[in-house]
Amino acid sequence: MSRWGVLVLLALSEGTLRWGELRREVDGISEKMLASTLRTLEADGIVVRTSYPEVPPRVEYSLSPLGEELMQRMLPLVGWVAEHAEGIVEQQA
User: Fold this and answer.
1) Bond into 65 cis (ω within 30)
2) Domain ranges for the chain
């Protein structure tokens, strides 16, 4: 999974988001990369894309049950990395 994929999943672990909200949450991601990442995560069954037939069209993204299970396992790892990031960086110097 790409760095962007992890960041998109982290954003979606907080709840359902629309395109613009995701774009703001995942700092530095381009529109092209966000679209590609969401397509991949959707194809893998980790993210659900819900399109509402409204004017203007509204599309929301959320974690699938598989994505929720993945994040239950990934969030402790992300927390560990955040907790130890300073020491890891110091080891590289």
Assistant:
1) no
2) 3-92
The closest of 41, 31, 36, 39 to 63, measured between CA atoms, is 41
> What's the rounded Cα separation, in Å, for the pair 22 and 3?
15
Please give the pLDDT value at position 5.
Answer: 94
d(CA 29, CA 6): 12
Q: What CATH topology corresponds to 3-92?
A: Arc Repressor Mutant, subunit A (1.10.10)
Please, what is the Cα angle at 28 between 17 and 43, to 5 degrees? Answer: 50
Global confidence as pTM: 0.85
Query: 20-69: per-residue pLDDT in tens?
Result: 999 999 999 999 999 999 999 999 999 999 999 988 889 999 999 999 99
